[in-house]
Predict the structure.
Amino acid sequence: MQDDVLIEELQELKKQLEQVKWEREQAARGPVRPADESPQQGIDPEGSPPPEDSEADTINRIKEQIQGTIEHLDENLGEIEPTTLLGVFTLGILLGRVLPR
């Protein structure tokens, strides 16, 4: 009897987890659905497939992300003490030699 209760609780938790995953996917895709609407109300939990980007769009997006990262590093590395950077670099070398390959 105890096992039956645990199985039911696990199934309920799985349903809740699927609901949360579905909501996160929908929020990441775009417009928010009404709060009273859930996947059990006839909506495909997978949603529509994302539009396919062309290779040029993907390459441009990657270039923008890399450029943003480089700019962020330039801004932050200027504020760090050189001795701190040297210490972190040295620790990296030591850890690289100590850890097995």
Summary: Residues 53-101 form one domain. The two ends are 51 Å apart (CA to CA).
